[in-house]
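Inputs:
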Amino acid sequence: METFAEVLIILVVLTNLKLLGSSRATACIRTVAAQGVLLAALPLVTSGDAITLRMIAQALVSGTLKAFVLPFLLLRATRGARAGRELAPFVGYTTSILLGVALMPLALALGRKLGVTGPAGADLLAPAALFTLLVGLLIIVCRKQAVTLVVGYLAMENGIYAMGLAFAQREPLLVEMGILLDVFAAVFVMGLVARHIHREFDTLDTDRLSSLKG
Amino acid sequence: MIPVLLALLALLLTGGLAAAWSCPRGASRIAAGGTAVAGLLSGATAVQTLAGAAPAALTLPWSVPLGAFSMGMDPLSAWFVLALAFLAPLAAVFGVGSLRDEEASRRARTAWGWFNLLVASMLLTLTARNGMLFLAAWEMMTLSSFFLVMHEHERASTRDAGWIYLVASHVGTAFLFAFFVILGRGTTMDFTAFGPPATGGALFLLALVGFGTKAGLAPLHVWLPEAHPAAPSHVSALMSGVMIKLGIYGLLRTLDFLGEPQAWWGWLLVVAGTVSAGFGVLLALGQRDLKRLLAYSSVENVGILAAGLGLGVIAARGGHPLAAALAVAGALIHIWNHACFKSLLFLGAGAVRHAAGTTDLDLLGGLLKRMPVTGASFLAGAAALAALPPLGGFLGEFLILLAALRLALFGGMSELGAGALAIAGLGLAGGLAAACFARAAGMAFLGEPRAPGAAGAREASKWMTRPMEALATTTLAASLFAPLALRAAGALVRNMSWLPDGAASSLAGCGRVVWGVCLGSALLVGLSATVFLFRARRRRGRPTRAAGTWDCGYAAPTARMQYTASSFSEPLTSLFRAVVRPGERARPPEKRFPAPSAFSSTGKDLFRGRVFVPVFRAVSEAAEWVRRLQQGRAQLYVLYVALAALALLVWKLR
C-alpha cells in the first residue's frame, strides 16, 4: 500500500512538470484533470482498511468534477479559438521547467520544516502539495492565455487539496467540498471571461486586457 | 433642530429625485424647489437663534467609533446657516435658468443631485457637534463640489482644475483629521467635551492649514482660481459665497475650543490675511478671465476676514475689549456682505457667459446696453466689492479698520505694529480692489463689443435675472440693516469664550457710530438721487445727439481702439511687477511707419509656479519608482503576492 501511495505522489509531481512544459492549452487541461484524479484516489490508497462509503462517494464526486466537468467547461472555452498553443508566454517552457526543478528542493525543505507527519507512507505528501501549489502560482505568473491561467488556478487548488490530506487525514473532505464549490464557480466564471476575451480581441491572451486600462 | 433635519431630508430627497428623474423639465424645478424649502426651514431656525432663542441640540443614534450624530444650532452656526439659507435658493433658481439648454441631459440631472448634496452637506457641517460627523460632512461637501467643478469634464482645463481642487482639499482634510484626533486626545470627538488642550499652538497651526485651505488663505489658495472658473456659475456663487466661509467658521470654532489664545496666533492671522488680501487683489487685477478674477478677489476678501479675526485675537490678548469686539463683528458682517455681492458677481459672470459665450474680458464689451439688468446688478456688486460707502462691503471693512485704528492708537508697541500692518495692507487692497472692479465692470459692460459673441448678446431669462436683482437689492440696502446686523453680531460675540468679558457690552456702545454710517449712507443715496433727478429734469425736452464714442475726427473707428483689459491694468501691474510677475508678451512698434504691434499680459500665480508645482513635482518623481511596480499586468501582481507569501513562509519556518 505504501509504495502505491508513493507512486501516486510521484505521478502528481510529474504531472506538475508536464504542466510547466506543455504549450498546448488542451494538453494542459487534460494534465490537470489527470492530476485531479490522482489526488482524488490518494485518500482511498493511504487510509488502508478504514475506507468508508462516505470517503468513496466523496472521492467519486471530486474525481468526476475534476476529470470531466471542469475540463469540459475549459475545453468549451477554447473551442473555436485559434489559440491551441501559446506561442509567446512571459517565461518560456524550458525556463519554466528549470524554475520548477529549482522550486522542488525548496518545496521539499519547507515541507519537511512544516513538521507534518503525513498518513502512512506519505511523508512526501506535504512537500508534493507545496510543490503543486507553487507550480500553480508559477503558471499563473508565467502565462498569458486565459485558459492556461485557469489551469494554473486548478493546479493550485489541487495543491491545497493535497495539503488538506496531509494535515487532516480524517476530515479533509469537508474542507475540500467547500473549496471545490468555489473552484467550480470560479472556473465557470473564468470560462465565460475567456470566451468574452476571445470574442473581443480574437485571442485568448490576457495581456490585451491592459488596453482597457483608463 | 427639527426644521434643520427636515431641511436636510428635503434636500436629499429632491436631489436624489432630480438625479433619477427623466422628465426633461422636472429635474431642475424639483431640485430648486427642495433647496428653497430647505432654505426657508433652516433660515427660520437661524433667525430665531440669532434673535435670542435658546440654542437647540439634537442627538440621533449613529454607530461610528467616537462618532455621534449630534447636531446643534447656536448663534455662530446660525450666522453662517442664514447666509447659506439665503444664497442657496437664489443660486438654485439661477441654475434652473442657466442649465436650461442642457436640462434634458443626464449630466444636468446629476448636477442637480450633487448641488443639493452640496447644500445639505454644508448645512450639516455647520450644525455638526461631533468631530466625526463634522469631518464626514466636510468630506461630503468636498466631494459633491468636486463633481460640480467637473461638470464640463470634456475640457482638459476643467479636469486639471478638478484634480487640483481634490488634492488641495484632501491635504487640508488630512490636517483637520489630525487636529480633531489630538484635540480629543483620541478618546472623544464631541465638541462639548473638547477642553483647552496643552498643545494649543500646534493645534492652532493644524487648524489654520486645514481650514485655511478651504477658505483660500494665501499661500493655500491655489485651488480657488482653478476651481471657480471651471464650475457652473451658480455653483461658483455658492462655493465662493458660502463654502469658503466654512473655513472661517472652522477657525472661529477652533478659537472657541482652544481657550485662551496666544498673541502670535493673532499675528499669524493678520500677516496671512494682509498677504492674502494684497496678493489676491493684485492677481485679480492681472486676470483676463472674469471668473478667475472673481476667484482671486475671493482670496482678497478671505484675507480681510482673517486679518479681522487676527486683530480680534491680538486685541483680546492685550485686553482691549472694544477693539476685539469691533474686529470680530466687522469680520462677521463682512462674511454676510461678501456672501451677497460675490455670489451676485459670479451669477453676473454666469449670465455674461451664457449670453456672450465667454468670460474673457478682451472679448467682451458693451454689454450694459444689451443686458441692462445683468449689467446694472453687476455694477452694483462691483461697487459693493470696492467698499463704496452706502453699499454692502463697506461696513465690515470699516469696523475692522476701526479696530485696527484703536489698536494702533491705544495699544502697546506690538499692537501698534499689527494695527498699522492691517491698516496699510487692507487700505492698499481696498484701493486696488476699486481699480480692479472698475476694470472688470468697465471692460465687460461699457464701451463697444470686442467680439461678435458680445455683440450678439441678449439679456438672460427671468430665471437668471431675478436672483441677481434680489442680491443687488440686498447689497444696495445692506447699510440700512447695519444696526440689526450689529445686534446679531453682539449675540455671537457674547458667546465667544476667547473674547474678554466686556466685549459684547462695549460693542453695544458702538451702535451710535453704526447709526451714523447708516444715516450718512441714506443721505448720500438721497443726495445722489436728487442730483440725478435734477439732471434728468433739466435734460428733458432737449434733443440728444448721438455720436461715435471715439469720434475725435478719426473717420473709421473700430472696437479694437478701446482700452483692453490688459492695457487698462498695465500701469498698476507693472508697478507691482515683483509680486504679480505678469506674463507679458509685447511687440512694440519699431520703425517710423510702424508694422503690426501687440501687447498682452496675464497674471501668473507666484505661489503656484514657485512653491506648489516644484513640491508636487518632487513628490511625484519620488513616487515614480513605486509606480514601476504597477504595470497593469495581473500576472505581475500575482507574482508579488506569491513572493510575499513565500517569503513569509520561509521566514516563519526558518
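The mean pLDDT of chain B is 88. Flag for discussion at group meeting.
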